[in-house]
Amino acid sequence: MNNNTTAYPDPAYAWYVVAILFLAYTVSYIDRQIMSLLIEPIKQDLAITDTQVSLLQGFAFTIFYTVAGIPLGRMADRKNRRAIIAAGILVWSFMTAACGLARNFALLFLARIGVGVGEACLSPAAYSLIADYFPKDKRAMPISLYSMGIFFGAGLSFIISGYVIQEVTAAREIALPMIGVVRPWQLTFFLVGLPGLLIVALMSTVREPVRRDLLAIGANKDHVSLSAAGRFLIAHARAYGAAFLGYSFEATISYGFFAWVPSMFVRSFGWEVSRIGYYFGLIVGILGTAGILLGGILADRALHRGVQDAHMRVAMYGAGFILVFGVAAMCMPTPALVLLMLCPTAVSLGIPVGLAPAAVNYITPNQLRGQVIAVYIFFAALIGMTCGPTVVALFTDYVYRDPLALRWSLASFTLLFAVLSIIAFALGLRSFRESAVALLAGSSGGGPPDS
């Protein structure tokens, strides 16, 4: 393995880059999640069905986001990562604004595709950048800080959407120059698309760092062929498989909570969507991000003690806390007690978010990081965004057969996926340690080199 002897960048500047990437991730998640509480006004104005709404939230974004991420991840392993990120932000910002211009389902569907393609540029390149700005034993914290954008952005989207719903209830319309009269939900898309332009400007201050941890997989240490990459992944399939599944199952719980907790409060306690959007947004935005930071701190401390499977082990413990507090939250008799139990649940849901990419980086050579992160995102998004909302609904419709039993559906769903996550992690701890030691020793384990 080629451990580049060039000194790492100044820590203050490295954290500055992480802060910019965090802002980018936050904006991306606001743009992605904002539609979840704007469903009713969009349905009313565009005269579309629930099925069409589900396509806008899931298929239009997820499939293209996940599929585009893999070639974009390979590009991040070979090209300028700063430029890739800036281009992606520009695309998703304009396409988010375009959602507000849509006058029918087809145009909104196309705009959502554009948002997904743009956002697919970000994380593979961002995680790879961070890994080259920090030494191996100090990466969990910055990666966790970057990953905080998920919960921080989701929390803001709930709060912003709650405010917009209040405005929609007042039936206000806004006249904009050159555009004309727009509804509040359309104005929301315009507003959340604007901050991305500022992030593009900030990306111009980011320097492309020296690539490190280059492993000789094949004849060319700088660029790896698809066949050599495939052999490496197959050789470490047990470690990657356990990590991908374990983290994806935990992500599934987050997506399920994001999709159904607001409706649970409406059905079980008669709350307005705007009210639960505000409270749930604060819990997710503050405590979820705190959980991500906590996960990074715990993993870094364990790594300093020589625990090579720290990323997996901490995430496994996090799944245990999700099981306890998540199920307990759904069993509370009053909304105040549910909110109280959702606080430690949000912290627990946040713990694995930053650990997943940190774990992938920890056992992956530099030339493959963007690609492997993209593969992880593919699994996490496909499993999480599909199973999270859907499995909860299946419990409600076919097990409990009562819309008012949504809280019990959430409890059963949490129990199921928390247990699956714990099992996946437990079975993969040894393989993960072996892969980590192999990378540190400079062994690719990927079979013979390319000719």
Task: Write a short abstract of this structure.
By secondary structure, the chain is an all-alpha fold. It has helices spanning 11-33, 39-46, 50-76, 81-101, 105-119, 122-133, 140-169, 184-193, 195-203, 226-235, 237-269, 273-304, 310-331, 335-362, 369-400, 406-440, and strands at residues 174-176, 180-182.
Protein model, in words:
This protein has 451 residues and is mainly α. It has a single domain, classed as Growth Hormone, Chain: A, CATH 1.20.1250. Helices cover 77% and strands 1% of the residues. It contains 16 helices and two strands. The protein has helices spanning 11-33, 39-46, 50-76, 81-101, 105-119, 122-133, 140-169, 184-193, 195-203, 226-235, 237-269, 273-304, 310-331, 335-362, 369-400, 406-440, and strands at residues 174-176, 180-182. The chain has a two-stranded antiparallel sheet with strand order 1-2. β1 and β2 (180-182) form a beta hairpin. α1 (11-33) runs parallel beside α4 (81-101), α4 (81-101) runs antiparallel to α8 and α7 (140-169) packs antiparallel against α12. The longest helix is centred in the C-terminal third of the chain and has 35 residues, at 406-440. It is globular. Residues 443-451 have low confidence and may be disordered.
